Amino acid sequence: MSELGRLVTELQVHGVADPALPGNRGRRGGAGPSDHRALTIDGTTVMVPVYNTAAKASPYSLEASGNSAVALANQGSEALRPVETTLEPAFYQLSTTEGVPYRSIALLHGRDVLATTLLQTCIRFRDRTDSCQFCAIEQSLEDARTIVRKTPAQVAEVAEAAVRLDGVKQLVMTTGTPNSDDRGARLMAETAAAVKQRVQIPIQAQCEPPDDPIWYERMKQAGVDSLGMHLEVVEPEVRRRILPGKSEITLEHYYTAFEQAVEVFGRGQVSTYLLAGLGDSAESLIACSDKLISLGVYPFVVPFVPISGTPLEHHPAPSTDFMVEVYTAIASRLRASDISSDVMAAGCAKCGACSALSLFETDR
Ligand code: SF4
């Protein structure tokens, strides 16, 4: 049983109260897990929620401890545990020649991942009853923290600077789904090509399954190393409730898409997000992960964390015990397979900061 894995799980499900300590203050809104900041514990950098309502009531809090050091306090214990916050990266100080701040184009995730949302709008977000209920993709637009669409040249310019100034190791590109049958794959391919012309950095693209599988080959040729296509939840009733629009794409369609993508990118270079805690049973998540691993797909399980301003902002996170049960079962299946977070070229599973799964994989 991973001691650090259990602690990270605790922090990710409860969040951490943060009295606005300095450093890289993380991010709010946007696509994927959010309202969190990076903390390094025993050399492992993880993202923990600090901005949502749950975090304010968490038994865990950050405290300043001596010269700019930070410690993690737990209400139930006297002991303080030293942790580190990450610094704001140097590229956040720069802007393009047209005056667009680099941080409106891409953000530092974890310790060394550059992440961007190429298109900050989504066909599924027009109507909140139709959108994925956990998602905040258009919220950061309303607050003018980002721009609607990042051009390939802008992303390439920021990636070059982030590698040179901050030692960034990989680029993760996600997108809202455009109204086209490539489902965002064209944007991914064009941007990957522009980035690879300026800087050699592993790239993960994330999009819905494109209608025509030729796009897997095009993305790969353009310089995409790994691909993420995200199931989020798996049981039929949970899919309809949480993904009212996206659940029109059947699970069977996803499984076919995974097979086609693995043929192009290779076993272990395709992954999916599974958000635990939204109604799927542990058995369903584990059975789905079994199937994914057999197809060559890494099941990146993360605890659902409510994001402020979304329809699920008051939905509870899963319990630590539930997550530990799911992580333990999936990690043992990963260990028995040829797939691991470590051998992935790029992507959320490689970064691992939003989940404790990789700690269970290595039993840390
Ligand atoms: S796991 Fe993905 S979303 Fe989370 S910090 Fe890493 S790159 Fe960002």
Task: Summarize the entry for a quick read.
The chain has 364 residues and is of the alpha/beta class.
Walk me through what this model shows:
There is one protein chain. By secondary structure, the chain is α/β, with parallel strands linked by helices. It has a single domain (92-361), classed as TIM Barrel (Alpha-Beta Barrel). The protein has twelve helices and twelve strands. The protein has helices spanning 3-14, 53-56, 139-142, 152-166, 185-198, 214-222, 236-242, 251-265, 282-295, 320-335, 348-351, 357-361; strands spanning 36-41, 44-49, 60-64, 70-74, 80-85, 107-109, 113-117, 170-174, 203-206, 226-228, 270-276, 297-303. A seven-stranded mixed beta sheet has the order 6-7-8-9-10-11-12. Strands 2-1-5-4-3 form a five-stranded antiparallel beta sheet, with helices on one face. Helix 6 links the parallel strand 9 and strand 10 (226-228). Helix 4 (152-166) packs across helix 5 and helix 9 (282-295) runs parallel beside helix 10 (320-335). The longest helix is centred in the last third of the chain and has 16 residues, at 320-335. The chain is globular and about 60 Å long. The chain starts with a helix and ends with a helix. The model has no long low-confidence stretch (mean pLDDT 90). Iron/sulfur cluster binds next to strand 7 and helix 11.
